[in-house]
Amino acid sequence: MASICFYFQVHQPYRIKKYRIFDVGHDHEYFNDRSERDLNNEKILHKVAKKCYLPTNKLLLELLEKHPEFKIAFSFSGVFLDQLDEFSPETLKSFQKLVKTGRVEILDETYYHSLAFLYSKDEFVRQVELHRKKVKELFGVVPKVFRHTELVYNNELAKFVEDMGYKAILAEGADHILGWRSPNFVYRAPNVTKIKTLLKNYRLSDDIAFRFSSRDWAEWPLTSEKFARWVDAVNGNGNLVNLFMDYETFGEHQWEDTGIFDFMRALPRELLKHPDNDFVTPSEAAKRYPVVGEFDAHNFVSWADVERDLSAWLSNSMQKEAITNLYALEGEVLATKDARLIEDWRKLQTSDHFYYMCTKWFADGDVHKYFNPYDTPYEAFIAYNNVLQDLRLRIAGTKKKKGGLPALSEARRAGVNVPPKKTVKKVTFAKKKKVPKKQVAAKKKK
């Protein structure tokens, strides 16, 4: 039997506007670009909702109604859900309608689509709890499966998430870990006892997500019949075909005129033609299939780029400096108890900000350029660094209000480049030596 597990990641960051050094200390609105650039968050959300979210949600609802066996799964970043609340309630309602069918599972992740696990386990837990609360509030469900930001995964994370109570966790089916083995089975980290690891079949997933419209690809055009044959071949050679991808694949990354919607509309029917095929959600897959071996990831793996590692976010000095400086502020930010300041600090944790600073080229260069709303990675770093400087000033100002050290002194202690006040040197004149009266009288007699 081959069970097909469709999982879609849905995320939009709060992009930082072109924040200048001259804005530091004056403008605390970092994400309110109103230009026609791709830094305008409202504009981007409306564009993607029109091209992807609304038409794809409509299509999937039709498929769920037409095929009782069809099932899918989503994970939504908290910042994406916040933007739906703010900019597109209609889109949020269309997702809620899908979940109400009972055949759509929602997974947990960090609220701010962050890499907090690498820098602060406490912050990681706080964000996951915030996300779980938001999902319960909007969709009335409590997730049982965890999906980490950008499918970043290692043994330590698997153990940590198991201790949080999750039944399964998603990961990239990376060849350098699997070796000769197939991603079409259920695995487990070597240091856990219960939680199961579901691996993305990246070849079949990327055939849809990245290669679908490429006329240079030997398999172009990809039809639903051809793809179904590839999945059928797993029968007897695996239990599970995990098709994990960004939801924006449909209509945004692969435009409507590529035929991506027609492909998806026909796919469930073609897959169900094989009597041994069916659909499962991630939690159902973990419950149904036994573990066949260990997936031993000592180092972090992800679903990004050809390396499948952290280099998309942490490969150069700009990225490392920015993220290290951000998490160094954790204690001071939380101590302020300033809700807006804390919210801004958390929005700055979103992994996209560091992705925009990536300077990798060659095989992955076009991908990074396509997803980058800034002209260069350096422009992204400058804007981010300027925002951090303003954040430090706000922390300093909050401390002053609470009776702490003077704001200017605190700012300098925090590393903000505040020019010193110009001071005028006090000019002192030598005092006239006092001559005794007797000497003055003697001089007069002469």
Automatic annotation (TrEMBL):
Gene Ontology molecular function terms on file: catalytic activity
Cited PANTHER family: ALPHA-AMYLASE-RELATED, ALPHA-AMYLASE-RELATED-RELATED
Lineage of source species: Bacteria, Candidatus Lloydiibacteriota
InterPro entries found in the cross-reference section: GH57_Enzymes, Glyco_hydro/deAcase_b/a-brl, Glyco_hydro_57_N
Record flagged with keyword DNA damage: no
Record bears the keyword Disulfide bond: no
Protein family: Belongs to the glycosyl hydrolase 57 family.
Top-level taxon of origin: Bacteria
Keywords annotated in UniProt: Carbohydrate metabolism
Residue intervals of the Glycoside hydrolase family 57 N-terminal domain: 6-293
Protein name from the UniProt record: Alpha-amylase
Biological process annotations from GO: carbohydrate metabolic process
